[in-house]
């Protein structure tokens, strides 16, 4: 199954728009042209993106600089989507358990600690990987790596209008 990264990211941004406005987040994102497709269930990829964007918003809640940057790239065989924030960052000690179910630093009622565990499983099940880099106090970058696919976006009419 193929997902168009541009359409999927647009949906995820739409569904998290309220939260991003609430926190006052600036978004740096340019939709990829030509489109970049990945071998993944689009609904699953959207869930992963929503989880990562919601975490980024939470991490920036008290930050003076609140920028969410989304990057998409492909070398033809592998595609990467990176989600970067300028939030709290992740302590070195927490990185080993970050993707474990029920690991959370959020107050009771705010987080269950399931978002990253579920996201990790969904990306892995598509033959990809979810990784993180972080500078405590500066921010974090989560990167989704997936097999690239010719996006299933070519409609019959696209050939004549292209
Ligand atoms: N972008 C980020 N910046 C800083 N810390 C993060 C970030 N993303 C995740 N974390 C840390 O990882 C923990 C686990 O994240 P995860 O998404 O699995 O659970 P949660 O957000 O706490 O709860 P849930 O997603 O179930 O509502 C978070 O509580 C937080 O401490
Ligand atoms: Mg979460």
Automatic annotation (TrEMBL):
Tell me its EC number(s), please: 2.7.13.3
Q: Which InterPro entries match?
A: HATPase_C_sf, HATPase_dom, His_kinase_dom, Sig_transdc_His_kin-like_C
Q: Which SMART domains match?
A: HATPase_c (SM00387)
What is the official name of this protein in its record? histidine kinase
Alphabetically, which GO biological process terms does the record hold?
Answer: phosphorelay signal transduction system
Q: Which reaction does it catalyse?
A: ATP + protein L-histidine = ADP + protein N-phospho-L-histidine
**Cross-referenced Pfam families:** HATPase_c
Signal peptide residue numbers? none
Could you state a single Gene Ontology molecular function term? protein histidine kinase activity
Domain of life, per the record? Bacteria
- Histidine kinase domain segment(s): 1-150
Say yes or no: keyword Lyase present: no
Q: Which organism is it from?
A: Devosia ureilytica
Q: Which UniProt keywords apply?
A: ATP-binding, Kinase, Nucleotide-binding, Transferase, Two-component regulatory system
The record's SUPFAM superfamilies line, in alphabetical order, gives: ATPase domain of HSP90 chaperone/DNA topoisomerase II/histidine kinase
């Amino acid at each position: 199954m193929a997902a168009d990264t541009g359409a999927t990211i647009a949906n995820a941004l739409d569904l998290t728009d309220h939260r991003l406005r609430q926190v006052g987040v600036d978004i740096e994102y340019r939709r990829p042209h030509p489109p970049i497709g990945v071998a993944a269930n689009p609904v699953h990829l959207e869930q992963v993106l929503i989880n990562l964007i919601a975490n980024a918003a939470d991490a920036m809640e008290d930050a003076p600089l609140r920028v969410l940057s989304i990057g998409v790239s492909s070398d033809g065989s592998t595609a990467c989507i990176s989600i970067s924030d300028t939030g709290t960052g992740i302590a070195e000690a927490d990185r080993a358990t970050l993707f474990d179910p029920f690991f959370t630093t959020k107050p009771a009622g705010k987080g269950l600690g399931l978002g990253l565990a579920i996201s990790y499983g969904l990306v892995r099940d598509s033959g990809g990987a979810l990784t993180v880099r972080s500078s405590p106090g500066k921010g974090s970058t989560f990167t989704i790596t997936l097999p690239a696919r010719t996006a299933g976006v070519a409609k019959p009419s696209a050939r004549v209008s292209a």
